[in-house]
Structure formats: C-alpha cells, structure tokens
Amino acid sequence: MTERHSSASVIRMVEIGQHVLFVALVVLSVLRSYDEVPARWQTVVLGGAILGWYLAGALRRTALSSARRRYLWLGVLVALWMIAMLVSTEYAWTGFALVFLVMHLLPVVPAVAVVVAITAVIVVVQVIDLGWKVATAGILGPIIGATVVVGLALAYRAIEVESAHRQRLVQELLRTQDDLVATSDALAAAQREAGTTAERERLAREIHDTLAQGFSSILLLSRSGLESGVDRAGVLAQIESTASDNLAEARRVVRALSPAELQSSSLADSLRRLGSRIAQQTGVAVDVRVEGTPTALDAPREVALLRIAQSALSNVRQHAQAQRAVVTLTYDERDVVLDVVDDGCGFTVTSVNTGAGGSFGLAAMRSRLRMVGGTLAVESAPGEGTALSARVPISVGSAL
C-alpha cells in the first residue's frame, strides 16, 4: 500500500511540474518576443490563446476524458503554437513544453513522430529567420532538448505502468485476502461441526461403555434376585455396589474426566477388579493376565483399553452364555494388546451389521480405537466362542 501511494504521488508531482513548466515557458516566450515583434499585441494574443486553451483542457479533466477530445485539444494547441512560431522564434521555448505534453498524451510511436515534426519546425523556422549562424544553438539545442524530453516522458510512462501494475496486484491481493477470510470462516465452521460430531460420538461411547453396561448389570442382578432360593441380601449388595460405581462414572462422564478406576490404580489392576466384579455378578470365571513389561500409556489409550474390556465382558455376560473368559494384557516394544477370549456360544462375524441388532458395541469399540490410532480384530463362529483383540500403539510416534 505504501509503494502504491508513493508511485501515485510521483505521478501527481510530475503532472503539476508539467503544468508549471508549460505556463512558465509560455510566459517566457511572450516576454522574450514582446520587444522583437513589430505588433506587440500579436504575441500577447497568441500567448494568451495558447495559455488559455492549455488551461481549459488541463484543468478540466472531463474535457479530455475521451481520446478523440484529447487529440482535438492537442491538435489545436499545436496549431496555435505553429502560428506563434511564425510570429516569433522565441516560441521555441514553448515547443519544449509542448514536446513533453505530446509524449504524455499520444502513444509512443505517434508521439515520437510529432516530436520530430515539432523539432523540425523549430529548427527550420530559426534557420529561415536567422540563417545558418544558428547552427549550434538553433539546431543542436532543440534536438538535444527534444531527446531529453522524450527520455523523461518515457520514464514517466514507465512509472505510470508500474503504478497501474502494482495497483492491480494490490487489488488481487485484497481479493485473495477476502477469499482466504471466507475460506477460513468456512473451515472454522466445518471444524466446529466436526468437533460437535466427535463429541457426540465420544459421549455415545462413554454412555454405552459405562452407564448402559451398569444399568444392564443392575437389571440382570435384579432379575436374579427375584428367583427363589437366592441370597437376596447379597444381590442387593451387588446392586448397590454397581449403582454406586455407575453413579461415579456418570459424574466423571459429565466432567470429562478419566475413569475412576484409572485415577487411583494401573490399567492392569483396573482390569483385575473388573474381572473379579464380573465373576462375582455372573458366576463366569474371569482370568486376567498381564504379559510383558508394563509400560505407561497416556490417559486416552488407557481409557480406550479399559472401555473395550468393559464392553467385551458385558457382551460375554449378556450374550455369550460362557463359563470362562480370559483377559490378557500384553506389552511389547511398540504396542499394547488387549485380548478377551470366551468359551461361549459365539456368532457369525460377517453377519454383524454395524449399529443394528445390539452390535453397536463393536462399532463403538472400533470408533474408540481409531481415535487413539488403534485397531480391533474379532474372531468368532457359532459354538466356538469369541476372541476379541484390541491393539493400540504405546505412543503417537509408534503409530506412524
């Protein structure tokens, strides 16, 4: 923006300088020819006509808004100057300013042709009037002067072209900036929408893996408590314990905190308590094993593995009709693998349709693992039990 204003200022200063130069040289021509012309009124009238015609066009830009008007105005001005040259050779001074004006208003080739013609008129008139004794000053002077003016005019044109070019670039940059702002707003809106969707998915997984599992346990326990010959006091104690755990989980889901189990113990200990609770509630023997050297995981990965174990054991309790389940947590150099294997009734993996028929749990598991760079594999067949394997990288770098 600063460069554009600088170029515009230079152009404006050149225009003002051109007006001042033209007026000054016309006045100089009138003064120098005043004592040489027999009829002094002629030079005054011609000087006034030239000056008046020039100012009429120069000070009214609308009068020169079209090329036709500019050429007509310039043609009349050149004609008046030629008449003045016939009256006095002193108007050669005005010819110097006229050359500059021609270079400013006409295209380069016609302008140079007119400049050559004006220079020739000056030289010829002076030679006719004063003879060949003006060879040095009267011939070389106008030629050198015209050459200098042409050079200055070409430099002025270059400044105009550069200014126009920079102005176009600035306008393009402003348009690009507006486009970028619009794109940024659209991207921000898309990110907000994606964040909202991701948060909804996260809450859906949390509710499924915690509250829904807890309510399911309470429902199963309450049904078993209605059967005859059951230790109802023990069942009520289990219902109370499960409801208490579920309430704690509900509070932590709302506060977006880590699971209560992981706040005070390791992932392996949390899995052992989970297996013990499931075994106590259902009678299914749950064996929890840890292999390899335990490695600290970040909270999102530990939460993911714990939720996968909770969901998998909930499926064992509700659907598998299993007698035994084995939960294995394996640490290797790059990954941590959670395997949950049961000896239940199994199912056909290819028949599971995501989101239907109670299979939301598997879809939620896969979605949760994708959030931490993990994968899920399920193997099962009718009558042959089920094996579920969740794998997560130990760190972000190992996921690449």
Automatic annotation (TrEMBL):
Entry's localization field: Cytoplasm
E.C. designation(s): 2.7.13.3
Catalytic reactions of this protein: ATP + protein L-histidine = ADP + protein N-phospho-L-histidine
Cofactor(s) annotated in UniProt: [4Fe-4S] cluster
Principal EC category: transferase
Cellular component GO terms, alphabetical: cytoplasm; membrane
KW ATP-binding (keyword) present: yes
Keywords of the record: 4Fe-4S, ATP-binding, Cytoplasm, Iron, Iron-sulfur, Kinase, Membrane, Metal-binding, Nucleotide-binding, Phosphoprotein, Transferase, Transmembrane, Transmembrane helix, Two-component regulatory system
Transmembrane segments: 12-34, 40-59, 71-93, 99-125, 137-159
InterPro entries hit by this protein: HATPase_C_sf, HATPase_dom, His_kinase_dom, Sensor_HK_TwoCompSys, Sig_transdc_His_kin-like_C, Sig_transdc_His_kin_sub3_dim/P, Sig_transdc_His_kinase_ChrS
Function: Member of the two-component regulatory system NreB/NreC involved in the control of dissimilatory nitrate/nitrite reduction in response to oxygen. NreB functions as a direct oxygen sensor histidine kinase which is autophosphorylated, in the absence of oxygen, probably at the conserved histidine residue, and transfers its phosphate group probably to a conserved aspartate residue of NreC. NreB/NreC activates the expression of the nitrate (narGHJI) and nitrite (nir) reductase operons, as well as the putative nitrate transporter gene narT.
Name of the featured protein: Oxygen sensor histidine kinase NreB
